[in-house]
Amino acid sequence: MLLGIDVGNTQTVLGVFSGSELLDHWRISTERERTADEMYLTIGCFLCLSERSFDEVRGMIISSVVPEMTGALTHMGRFILKLEPLVVSSETDVGIPVLYENPKDVGADRLVNAVAAVHKYGTPSIVVDFGTATTWDAINREGEYLGGTIAPGIEISANALFHQAARLPRVELLVPSDPIGRSTVESIQSGIILGTAGQVDRMVELFKKELGEDSKVIATGGLADVVVEHCRSIDIFDPLLTLEGLRLIYMRCCGTP
User: Rounded to two decimals, what is the model's pTM?
Assistant: First the structure.
């Protein structure tokens, strides 16, 4: 069994595979102070609920943008599970050329998403990831990762608004019934959710001018389900895209666990 872990700044996604089959997956909040022992107990509880255990895990792969968590998970793999985890980085053979000016600057999660998008949906493709940041990543017709765009994510934008504008209340991230808000709460919800959808559509429009109008647009990320249905440009919503990318990279680099 393969254990795949994608650590984002806000959420961490966990999944276990048997061959190409995703057996189960979970999403937890990212807490930078968690130790290797705490992660072992947390993941172990999830496995137990699925009637599985660490004894079945034969391989482990990590994609992380949080160095503290990378260290804790690597320690868990090496010294508790007695496995050498594959930690995805710019030096990992992910199977697609990276044309970024400095490949080391590309987040591991963005590379993993690109690998999965090419494998599952072909090229050219655009991946929109709704996480702590909202990112757009471009893969051209030749299967090369070109780069992309990074913008503040939904929660970052909302928190900045609440903190900087003293009279504006914190609101639940829901879409109001009308884009023209009839209250302050509805006005904020409309601006955050529908404003983000409009931003997504405009960026996809610009990307397609370079990549081609036939580019597949794939949405993923923990906050995608809030926005995707209001975007005109999204073709596919794949919340587990990153886990599939982790599986593909592990199989390429290490074979069957």
Answer: 0.94
* pLDDT tens-digit series, residues 233-252: 999 999 999 999 999 999 99
* CATH code for the domain in which residue 35 is found: 3.30.420.40
C-alpha span between 103 and 101 (Å, rounded):
6
DSSP string, 77-110: IIIIS----EE--TTS--SS-B-SSSGGGS-HHH
Tokens read off for 153: 């994510």
At which of 36, 57, 87 does a domain end?
87
Q: Using omega within 30 degrees of 0 as the cis cutoff, is the peptide bond preceding 124 cis?
A: yes
Model confidence at 166, in pLDDT bands (50, 70, 90)? low
Range of the domain at 55: 2-87
Contact status, residue 16 vs residue 3, Cβ threshold 8 Å: yes
Write down the catalytic residue from 6, 109, 129, 238: 109
CA angle (256, 124, 128) in 5-degree steps: 80
Number of compact structural domains in the chain: 2
Please state the length of the chain.
257
Please answer whether residues 85 and 60 qualify as being in contact, where contact means their C-beta atoms are separated by less than 8 angstroms.
yes
Whether residue 108 sits in one domain with residue 204: yes
- Whether residue 5 is predicted with pLDDT greater than 90 in this model: the reply is yes
Respond yes or no: is residue 105 known to be catalytic.
no
SS3 102: coil
Do residues 183 and 140 share a domain?
Answer: yes
Share of the chain above pLDDT 70, in %: 100
